[in-house]
Amino acid sequence: MAAKIEDMETRIEALMDVMRVPPGKKINLKKDYDPGFTGKWMTKAEAKETLARGIQMLAEMQDKLWAQNQYAVLMNLQALDAAGKDGTIKHVMSGVNPQGVDVHSFKGPSSEEMDHDYLWRNFKALPSRGRIGIFNRSYYEEVLVVRVHPEFLASQQLPPKLKDKRIWRRRFEEINNFEKYLVDNGIIVIKLFLYVSKEAQKERFLKRTQLPEKNWKFSAADIKERAHWDDYIAAYEDMFNHTSTEWAPWYIVPADHKWFTRLAVAAVLYYTMEKLNLAYPTVSEEQKQALIAAKEELEREDGGPKDKAVVKAEEEEDADPQDPASNGEVPKDESKKKSKKKGSKNR
């Protein structure tokens, strides 16, 4: 088992290197990352087995995160339509305690949210210590969809002089500072982009139109956004190059194969939380004495600890009269055997 765990650790390290956007280095999304990548070092069957084991390990980590109550984990999920964000959340978080996880899906801002700065609604939804928070789309929409659609920026209640060409650089800097503030206060930021190819997106859109059980997922707006594919890719690329930092790096997760996407997301979550050295709180000597006192008090509720004679008497009283072994009786056949042995010895 130890060898298997060590092997899994090595594989996770290798996968992180493939997906991580190196801070300070400019990347080319189309050339440097493959949405169809699955890695030759793991088959689909192995991936499913590894994910099942990983989900159990994540559940243990979450339990320690809750008990330790020092860190919180914020997972930002960004993607183009049909990349599989909802399914990924469902599968990867299937083993954790739902009481310790908060999921927020950020749609277009409300009128109240428009009257605040763009980070306000996300700030309100941050996870408290001991919890995992998941943002299904996040404040990064402000440098993606708002950039691709200038009309959204025009409708924001900002002074005209702030809607200049430098607004995206300023927002990159503001987001980096915001995330540095979070990490410095024990809120660990994990950023994942589920990278689906245009071909795979088309196949999934077609399924939504053809399969009755998937019709509800279809939206005409998705087709309109698909027409802006190149603009989104350019916006994402610029965002990665300016916001993948040492304290909150981006991970570009291949999303053409859902089984691999789920494994990769679980791997990033495990890899990040494992470095926090999570542990259950140490019980002090005073707490140990309190536990002993509580145990003694509970035992006194029924007249005090039972001695061995009382326990034995109760066991005999509860014995099944139909079961010779439970009431101490020896079966007749066994009795005869013992008699023969006894007789042969006396002779």
From TrEMBL:
InterPro entries: P-loop_NTPase, PPK2-rel_1, PPK2-related. Residues 337-347 have a biased composition (Basic residues). GO terms for molecular function: phosphotransferase activity, phosphate group as acceptor. Residues 44-275 form the Polyphosphate kinase-2-related domain. Residues 294-313 have a biased composition (Basic and acidic residues). GO terms for biological process: polyphosphate metabolic process. Gene3D superfamilies: P-loop containing nucleotide triphosphate hydrolases (3.40.50.300). Residues 294-347 are annotated as: Disordered. Pfam families: PPK2. PANTHER family: POLYPHOSPHATE:AMP PHOSPHOTRANSFERASE, POLYPHOSPHATE:AMP PHOSPHOTRANSFERASE-RELATED. This is Polyphosphate kinase-2-related domain-containing protein. It comes from Methanosarcina mazei WWM610.
